[in-house]
Amino acid sequence: MGAISDEDVSAVVCEGVAGFLDSENEAIAALEASELSDQAKWQIAALLQQPKQKFMLVVEAVNANLPAFEYAYAKIEAEIAPLLTQLEDQVAQGELPPAVDTVRALDPDAQVVPSLASALMIMLFGKYCFVGLLISRLLAGQGESLTEIEATLVAKSLSDASKLKILRVLKNEKRYNLEIARRVELTPATTSHHMNMLLAAGLVEMSKEDGKVYYGLCASGIKRYCAWLNDSLL
Q1: Of the chain's two ends, which shows fewer C-beta atoms within 10 Å, N or C?
Q2: 213 in helix, strand or coil?
Q3: 201, 221 Cβ separation under 8 angstroms
C-alpha cells in the first residue's frame, strides 16, 4: 500500500463506488442520489475523502493479527496451494471458467486477483477482477451437461426466495443492479451478493451498455439445468 500513490488509490475507489451505485455521475453525486442509508453514505464518503488512510487502517489491523492469519493459512495451505496454481495456469493459458470470462469481458485488461475471503465471488473492481478460489472447482467440467456439483449450486440458488424473485424480475428484460435492488426491495450490496451467486450458478449473464452493467437471464444455463433434471430424475 505504501508504494501506491494517493491518486491511484482514490481513482480505484471512486471508480468502484460509482460502479456499485450504477451511475455515470461523479461518485459523491451518485452517493447523494442513492437510496443507501445515511450511515452508509457517511461511511462511503469518509472512504472517498481519505481512501489510502482508511485502507491503511485495515492493513495495520491485519499486520497486528498476522500470527493468527498465518496459523489459519497453515491449516489450509495444502488445499489452497493447488487452487492458486490452477488459477495461475488458467490465466496463463486463457482457459478461465466461462463465468469468469463473462465478467472479465467488461474489462479484458483487468488483473485477476485470487480471493479466499469470498471463495465463490467474481467481482470487477477498478482494474482488478477478484476471482473466488472455489469457482473453478464448482464449475469444473462445465459443458453441455451439468455436473452434480453444478446442479447442486443451481438448486441452492433456486431454493432462495430472493434469488428466485430476482430471476422473475429478469424474465422479460435485462436490468442493472440498482434497478433490480429496487424491484426486489433489497439493498444494492445484498443484491450484488445474490447476483454473484446467480452468475456462478450460470443462471444469469452480464453485459455492459451505456456505462452500466446489465444482468439478464442465461437461457442456455437454465436449459442445461432442465436437461440435467430430465436425465437424472425422469
Answers
A1: C
A2: strand
A3: yes
